[in-house]
Amino acid sequence: MKTYPLIRGLGYYVPERVLTNAELERMVETSDEWITSRTGIKERRVAAPGQATSDLSLEASKAALDAAGMSAGELTHLFLCTLTPDAYCPPAACILEEKLGIRGKAAMDLNAACSGFLFGMDMARAVICMTPEAKVLVCACDVLTSRTNWADRRTCVLFGDGAGAVVITSGDAEKRPGDAAIKDVRLLSDGSLGHLLTVKGGGSGSPMRLGDVVGDDFFVQMSGQEVFKHAVRNMVSVCEDVLAANGLTGADIDYFIPHQANWRIMEAVAKKLGLPLEKVCATVARYGNTSASSVAMGLAESFQTGKIKPGDKVLLSVFGGGFTWGAALLEF
Q1: Boundaries of domain holding 42
Q2: So where's the catalytic machinery, residue-wise (predicted)?
Q3: What is the CATH number of the domain that holds 325?
Q4: Same domain, 30 and 153
């Protein structure tokens, strides 16, 4: 009988600071009605001054370890999926390792933009396939408000900060209530479309030099309508591939957690997959687009609030800059 890697603990964390649409109305030329009707977002969380990716990741990781009944010292690998690391060097995963009070693990950052969580989860699967005794922490976290232009009403309304984490081990161990088998993961990318969603500034292609003034290149820039079109088409396609490969249809899915970018995108994908909206995770109204962490956060919160139950088949789907996208099938 084939065994699958298991998610054995789920955790998430959001900063305390809530930024509402009403507050944004006083910052830029926008309105609650305009934001809500186009995105479904009512509020988002913003990291406190000095609160970095590793800080949010620490809280989510501790929650996931507690849920797994494990200590940080039992981990063998730490993957931190982020496009907003604390610094270029050292890797944020190594900073997280230190904050967890452990040493000598394999810690690394992974950047697949908003798709990062599924890329990290698939990397954990590969590690466990080669090393069954491995115990892998996959944390997804972004502090995108640090890369938000608060004068750009098209993008500043979209993003929030947060972190989600899972602990993944071999499926050889006994599956407990609350554990989820990772049945399938499919990942794709298309670099020819990368120019449609960017944060260019500070990289080696657009380096910061002494005396430079921070400009638009240092913030998120997006061709919204083009991103919408590609996101819907590609998320639907990869979800259909995962379902077909596992002999399933949308009717077999108990819960769907898409990347929480925009309610319109999420609604369009669900409808094309034949999924009723009551089966769709929707945290976007409260947290906004939290980038790599959105699906990890949605997974943890949905399980903790009873929306996901033992025996449920859960479909995940992501889309992000690169372009990158993917889907995964879990069974609780």
Answers
A1: 6-169
A2: 114, 259, 289
A3: 3.40.47.10
A4: yes
